[in-house]
Amino acid sequence: MRHPAVQKVISDNYSRFKYWVTADQEGELLFYRNQHKGRRLIQQLRLPLQQLWETRKKGKTEELPEDVPPGRMRIPILFPPPTAPKKFFVSSEFDLFAVTKERNLLRHPRNEKSSGMGWRLVMEQVPPSASHFAMGPEEDGRQLFLSFKVHNRELTICRLATGESKSIYFNEWKPSHFPDFFLWIRSFTI
Fold this sequence. Notes:
The protein has 190 residues and is mainly beta. It folds into 2 domains: 4-58, no CATH class; 78-189, Thrombin, subunit H, CATH 2.40.10.500. Helices cover 10% and strands 37% of the residues. The chain has helices at residues 4-12, 49-58; strands spanning 19-23, 28-35, 38-46, 78-79, 87-90, 96-99, 105-108, 119-123, 132-137, 143-149, 154-159, 165-169, 182-184, 187-189. It has a 5-stranded antiparallel β-sheet, with no helix packed on it. Strand 10 (143-149) and strand 11 form a beta hairpin.
């Protein structure tokens, strides 16, 4: 909050903030409430960071999903269900996926303990203006994500484990009575 741009935004919108939460390096959390153009301390907590870190080192660490590419949101954050997604689709393993208006790919796993609690962010920046989507495994089990833009017939396949993607123009494509692509015998079909 010491950055000048952050201070300016806070100053301009101070009345819109109802609560403030600050944390320091020693694990002290301070909860404030805006009251009469000032902040009033509501609660103060001190986390035993050394004890928490030692417990975490000894205990089992949570495994991160393999379908998240390195360097991208490799933290186990669950998102709320999308309110108005651009598209819902099901993978060949029957996991539910959603592409949001913000061009994020979210996954709702069917066999995880946390599946009832939220959605995992799998990919950011889904290709814009894509309208057809599919998901399927490679031979080694890693996930492939297919997106197709109807207006220019651009087909993009992204390997989620590494984040690499390849695009081609599928000029021979003709609309069919099947609404989307799907994975059949290790190949995407329409």
